[in-house]
Write a structure and sequence with these properties.
Number of strands: 4
Strand order of the largest sheet: 1-2
CATH superfamily: 5'-nuclease
Structural class: mainly alpha
Shape: globular
Mean pLDDT: 91
Low-confidence stretches: none
Strand content: 5-15%
Largest sheet: 2 strands, parallel
CATH topology: Rossmann fold
Distance between the termini: 17 Å
Radius of gyration: 14 Å
Length: about 110
């Protein structure tokens, strides 16, 4: 909770969700940064986020986001996050200011303004 914007993000957690793709991404990054796999899993599970499926509809929506955001350097994970948020009618919460310029049909909330 020491990072700028942590309070803003915490406000979204009770109704928060995460794509299965982004969950894998979070777990991989934690493990690469030395967090034991079991500890990483426990930390993420403690957030009690809804894990939303990465199905064919989400893959197609992520592809559309990628085409729209090509010049913004979006990763596959970014595209799945935004697509999942749009399909679930939830905001995509990010610290990446470039997302605010996207016109992709999903609400984007930028923290750390």
């Amino acid at each position: 909770m020491d990072e700028p914007g942590a309070g803003q993000v915490a406000a979204f957690l009770p109704a928060g969700g995460i794509s299965a793709v982004n969950l894998a991404e979070v777990l991989l990054v934690l493990e690469r940064n030395g967090v034991p796999r079991a500890d990483a899993r426990h930390a993420v599970e403690a957030l009690a986020l809804d894990v939303l499926p990465a199905d064919a509809a989400t893959a197609h929506a992520a592809t559309a986001v990628a085409a729209t955001g090509r010049r913004r350097g979006l990763s596959l994970g970014d595209c799945f996050c935004i697509a999942t948020a749009g399909l679930a009618d939830r905001p995509a919460v990010t610290a990446d200011r470039s997302w605010a310029q996207l016109k992709v049909g999903a609400k984007i909330v930028v923290v750390r303004g």
